[in-house]
Amino acid sequence: MPSSGRVFLLVASVIIHTLLVYSGETSLGAVCSTDNDRLDSASHKFLSDCDDTTFCSASVNGTCQPRLCRRDEFPFGFTNFTSLPPLCQNGTFCPDEGSGCKPLWTVGSACQMDRDDQCAPPPNWADLASNQNFNGSLCLKSTCTFANMSLGQPCILDGVTYIDLGPNGEQFSNTVTRHNCQTSQLYCDTSLQVCVPTKSLGASCGSDQECRSFNCGPGGVCVDPPETPRRVEAWQVALTSLSIITAMAVTVVMLTLVHKRLRLQRYREIREYYEEQISLRKSLSVLHAAAADRYLDEKRHFD
Ligand SMILES: *[C@@H]1O[C@H](CO)[C@@H](O)[C@H](O)[C@H]1NC(C)=O
Ligand SMILES: *[C@@H]1O[C@H](CO)[C@@H](O)[C@H](O)[C@H]1NC(C)=O
Ligand SMILES: *[C@@H]1O[C@H](CO)[C@@H](O)[C@H](O)[C@H]1NC(C)=O
Ligand SMILES: *[C@@H]1O[C@H](CO)[C@@H](O)[C@H](O)[C@H]1NC(C)=O
Ligand SMILES: *[C@@H]1O[C@H](CO)[C@@H](O)[C@H](O)[C@H]1NC(C)=O
């Protein structure tokens, strides 16, 4: 069971490492050699004889020294955030081991794995820069390269698979393929090894780099990345506004009509009341007149 043995070793090394960091014990001053600086074969994390807060000073008779620079705002392994080593200024970079800021490498020089930020930008960096490179530079196959290859030119493909363990020991792997074609208009075709145009939304794809949106969806078609803000079309805005205005107008008209109807009804009631009163008065006066006539008649009769 070679693979489960390796997994066990990995878990053990992670636990020992964590214990070392959280017990406050560091390898500061310990004897070391830069010959043991390496990348983990599965996760590609930088490893050395020293811990995450120190670096090894030399190949022979070396000791672990406090790191002189950091790459991240909150670097891994540090517990005292008031005494972090500094970030490197522009034009310099902090190597994986943290041995101090170094000037950027020129194109063709060796760089540390996937550290695009170690490579100096090309003169036309503003045209080549994209979110898939650092200011137009790339570290492909550990060599500084420009992302300047145009349509139909041969390209370099660099695929790296990162494997790590989840909290319950389950393995996660992620393969990232990078190339030196101009992004995001072009990508490096895996079989032809030349730069070809990226695919638009809805086209079928096999990996993220094939899509102009840099996101190959679960159905194997290019889709917008999840963080894309929703685009609202002009006709949708117009339709929504029209609907709102129509609804408001209809409400106002309905209310006016209902109000008018109610007023008319009330007016009719009042008119009916008055008419009734008038007819009552009329019949009363008729009754009066009849009674008076009768009285006069009878009076005349007796007289
Ligand atoms: C390493 O240390 C040994 C013993 O102190 C010494 O003899 C040797 O010269 C040192 N080597 C280097 C390269 O400093
Ligand atoms: C953190 O570093 C600062 C500055 O070097 C120091 O004054 C402080 O005592 C350290 N705190 C701890 C908990 O080590
Ligand atoms: C870094 O770049 C910024 C903006 O380009 C500039 O203002 C600043 O002076 C640079 N710093 C150094 C140390 O070169
Ligand atoms: C890109 O490189 C240019 C030229 O060296 C530099 O002025 C600019 O600040 C860099 N931009 C970034 C985002 O590093
Ligand atoms: C890309 O940059 C390299 C290094 O400067 C240069 O040799 C090559 O001609 C450039 N290729 C194109 C297509 O501009």
TrEMBL record:
The chain crosses the membrane at residues 234-258. Keywords: Membrane, Signal, Transmembrane, Transmembrane helix. Residues 1-23 form the signal peptide. It comes from the Eukaryota. This is Dickkopf N-terminal cysteine-rich domain-containing protein. It comes from Trametes coccinea (strain BRFM310).
